[in-house]
Amino acid sequence: MPEVLASVLATPGLHWLVLTIMAAGIVRGFTGFGTALIFVPVGNIFLPAADVIAITMLVGFGGSAALLPRALKVAEIKDVSTLGAAALLTVPMGLWVMTQLPQDTIRWAAALIAAAMLSALVLGWRYRGRITVHKLLGIGAAGGAIGGMTGLTGPAVILFYLANGSRAEIVRANTILFLAMLDVVIVFNMTLGRLITWDMVALGVTLSIPYFLTARVGQAMFDPKYEKTYRTMAYLVIALAVVTGLPIWD
């Protein structure tokens, strides 16, 4: 036990990681997403990409425990299950790509993906077509590949749900469920690939405590009547990820 505590306390930038994960918990609580968009850019400053992805997913279990019970009452289970099934197949590919790329390349990729998502939303792009199984599979596959490579599990699915005009409550619930599925899938694949160490687990468990508490605070703040406010907050979260994720600040 003392060794585990010592390894956590020795984590570079630990106080910044704690503050960041608390902010991420609040945002995820009332928007349904935002954990990776906030935590990954900051985490990449202090830790290797594989560590950041693993810790983000492990911490995500805390958010899922806080948010899933309420989300399951609203989420479109069939559609989200289709998204998750496709992501299951592409996560290993994304993780493999991550292990082959330099740290700065992954950081640039994360920032550019977030920037592309933000641009599409701000410019008013809207999906007008019919939502078919094939399209859901494609979106889920993209989410799995991007999540495995960068730790940003949400952009593809969030972009789809926000852009097609779904109600904020549905966007939030579907996203919470999908991200919970990907947390499990990515951690499972990283464990098989021996990419997760006990030090990562210890740090993930430690950070999940403040994350769980602040996610509950954020959930208490959520009110479907303020749909426009939540969409605006989602855009601001993405913009923050783009700016802070750039390696030029190192």
UniProtKB/TrEMBL annotation:
It is a multi-pass membrane protein. Keywords: Cell membrane, Membrane, Transmembrane, Transmembrane helix, Transport. It comes from the Bacteria. Pfam families: TauE. The chain crosses the membrane at residues 16-39, 45-68, 80-99, 105-125, 137-164, 170-188, 195-213, 233-249. Its main location: membrane. GO terms for cellular component: plasma membrane. Belongs to the 4-toluene sulfonate uptake permease (TSUP) (TC 2.A.102) family. PANTHER family: MEMBRANE TRANSPORTER PROTEIN, TRANSMEMBRANE PROTEIN YFCA. This is Probable membrane transporter protein.
